[in-house]
Structure formats: structure tokens, C-alpha cells
Amino acid sequence: MTKPRFTFSSLKGIPDVLPPETILWNKIESAACEVFGSCGYDEIRTPVMEPSELFLRSIGESSDIVAKEMYSFTDKGGRGISLRPEGTAGVVRAYVEHNLPVRPAPQKFFYRGPMFRYERPQKGRQRQFHQIGAECFGASHPGMDAELVMMLMAFLEKAGISGLSLEMNSIGCPECRAAFKERLRAYFGPHLPELCPDCNRRFEQNPLRILDCKVERCIEIGADAPLISESLCPECRRHFDSVLALLTAMKTPYAVNPRMVRGLDYYTRTVFEVKSGRLGAQNAVAAGGRYDLLVSEFGGPETPALGFAAGMERLAKLLAEETLFKDLMEKTGGQPEVFIAPLGDAAGAAALVSAGLMRSRGIRVEIGWDGSLKSKLRRADKMGAKLVVIIGEDELKSGMYKWKDLKSGESGEIGAAEIPGLLSR
Ligand code: HAM
């Protein structure tokens, strides 16, 4: 073996996604496209980098994402730029920038793609991860909250993921939240010396974030903190009750989690998370909520909005464990339905013609170019091909190709055009 001149590996927390896992990703994405499309959502693609300010002004300075986790740099023109840590801010920017508010409401978009957060990598948490999400603009009715949550659950079901639980809460509007923040400050004030340095900062900036802290002592102290539900104004209370009543009427199982506050600043009223018991500490597969003020804060007209995002890596992990996919995950990738073994140059051209015809009909075909007939057949077997077709000189002359079904052991001779028929026997 020659000594390598260079060796590389991917960055920490920024993994490759290899087959057969990518097959699961495709399945999840097609389920999303189908379900979201049927609910009137169209795909939007926004850039992976945006001005850093965009995230600062939406996700919020006090959030962990902005305070600690952004991949930020100054470009050659001296602009502060960040890799997007989530999708909502960019979609809202695009909505306002392209004057989409003039179109009839509600306007609904979905998106997919990589997001970046400089977190400590661990099981289920990467620095580059992928989200598939949806955002809806111009609907204030609680019916839309319920519809969005039901769309998310329908997507997860369609993708084949089971054993999930839905948690709901309301974090109110700025008015009820101002009162709540004061109650939180009154509660946490005497505990400040015991709280971690981050929570001391949060106490000043936004005491809601203390409820999200992962430090054990802060969690213990937070356990008896006041609940936002006790501070909701009558309108926010009514909105939340209506959302829950609709979910109940639609027999969508949920639990109210009065402690959920979410880690991003833009939320108002309804927030929700979908969790799995099979993922360990990083158990949220999807999360979202309302953000009725963000569009106007970004210079658009007052536009109620709501959305969610699901983590692709976590969904793919859950899907890989579902019985239907266990088999697939043990193999190296998609198996060919037909493996053509050409012997000689003229047979190579015939193999390409046959493969082209079958591929145009959506059949997965592999041509075994290298090695002896024996090694080609061994490779077909290893790849899990269903059918092997052999094209040698004799076969070329007669136009009848030898075939063997590797599963049943049956074999025979057949004209090129008839090969697909063998698959549907
Ligand atoms: P988020 O809760 O920050 O919300 O992220 C949504 C989902 O992305 C999480 O539930 C999780 O599945 C996945 N996720 C987040 N961070 C990581 C990570 N480091 N590694 C792997 N997966 C991760 C948002 O991003 C909001 N933009 C959701 C939203 C849309 N709200 C309204 N519209």
C-alpha cells in the first residue's frame, strides 16, 4: 500500500450521512412533502448564511443559541455573518424582503436543510444537523395552531415513526410575560448565589431562560418556580384553551407541560414539543410554536405566524429502529433488482442497452464490469441482487440471455425485452 500523502476526517460533531441511512432520510422527506403539500405548504429554500444580526434580533441575545452556539465570522467585506442555527429567522426575512405579505393569507412554507450550532456534541446532538420545518403566516385563529400540530403528527406517522408524545404549553404575550418575569425574578432573586453563572446572566437578561437550564442545582431550584399558566392574560388563556379543546376533539393525544418555555425568544402563546422515550437525553424530535410579533419586528405588517421544525438525524435514528427498516439497515444500501454480467466488449454495449431500458422503467440495475464471471456472480450475491443476467458471445448471437433468480434458484434464457417480466413473477 502506498503511504497516504494526506489524511482527513470530518469535523467534530459534523458527521457524514451514509447509505443506507440516506434511504431513510428520503423516506422521511417524501412523507413530509406529501403531508405538508396536502395542507397547502410549498417549499422555500433560504441561504445557509445570513447576517448575524438576523439571529440576534429573533432568537434573542439571551438564548444559548446566540450567546454561545453560533458559527459566526466576518467576511472579506467586514460583514458579520453566521451560519443559520435554525430555519425560522431566514424564512421570516424572506417573507418580508420579497413582500410576500401582499399575497392572500395564510401563506405556508416548508423547508429542509442543514443548521449549525456550536454545541457540545453527544448522542443525538451535532454541530451540523438537519431540520425539516414548516412556517405559516397570517393566521391568528387557535384552529391553525391545532391544524399545524396535527399536520406535524400526521407527517411523523406517515414517515413510520411511532412511540412519540406531544407536549403543549402557552408562554403568553409580552404583557402576561412581563408580569411572569417579575414573578420569576422575585422567586429566583434569593437563590442567585446558588444559581450557575449563566443563570445569573439570564436573571438579568431574561429569567425565563433559567427554567431551561440543564445544571442540576438550577433544575432543583426551578422545580418550585411559578408557572407561566398562572400569569396568562384572559385572551392568551382563551387561545390556549381553544387549541387544547380542538386537539382533544380530534383525539390527538397530548400532555400540558406547564414548565416548557422553549429556548428561543421569538415565541408568543402556543409552544409545543414532540418527544421520544427512545432517544436518551436529547429526546425532542420536533418543536415549535407561535411567533406573532416577529414579522412586524422585521419590518413587515403585523402578521401572526407559527411553525415548527423536526430534527432529521433524530427521526432517522428512530426510523432505523422500526422493524420494517431493521433489515435494510443491516445491508450496505439499496439492493439491485437486476445484476447484468457482461463477458467481453460487445456484451458490454448490450448490457448498457438492457440496463438503460430497465432503468428508464425505474428498475434498479447494476452492471458487473470488473472480474471473472465467477467473481461477478459472487458480487451479485453479496449485493443482494434478485436476478442475474449473463451476456456472453453466445447470448449475443442468439439474442437470448441467461438468467438466474438468486432467491429461488430458478434459471433459464430470455430475450432482453422480457427481463422486467421476470421481476414481477
Ligand atoms: P429547536 O427546538 O431549536 O427549534 O429545534 C427543533 C428540532 O431540531 C429539535 O427538536 C431537534 O430535533 C433538532 N435539533 C436542534 N438542535 C439539534 C442538534 N444540535 N443536533 C441534532 N438535532 C437538533 C427551532 O429550531 C425552531 N426554529 C422551530 C420553529 C419553527 N419554531 C417555529 N417555527
Distance from N terminus to C terminus (CA atoms, Å) equals: 47 Å
CATH architecture of the largest domain: 2-Layer Sandwich
The parts where pLDDT drops under 50 for at least 5 residues are none
Share of helix among residues?
Answer: 25-40%
The coarse overall form would be: elongated
Fourth-tier CATH superfamily name of the largest domain: Bira Bifunctional Protein, Domain 2
- Tally the helices: 16
Report the average pLDDT across residues.
94
Q: What is the total tally of β strands?
A: 16
CATH topology of the largest domain: BirA Bifunctional Protein, domain 2
Query: What structural category do the secondary elements indicate?
Result: alpha+beta
Bound molecules: histidyl-adenosine monophosphate
Assess the beta-strand content as a share of residues.
15-25%
Largest sheet: 8 strands, mixed
> What is the CATH first-level class name of the largest domain?
Alpha Beta
Task: Explain what the structure shows.
The chain has 425 residues and is of the alpha+beta class. 39% of the residues lie in helices and 21% in strands. The chain contains 16 helices and 16 strands. The longest helix is centred in the N-terminal third of the chain and has 18 residues, at 21-38. The protein starts with 20 loop residues before the first helix and ends with a helix. The model has no long low-confidence stretch (mean pLDDT 94). The structure holds histidyl-adenosine monophosphate (HAM). Histidyl-adenosine monophosphate binds next to β6, β10, β11 and α11.
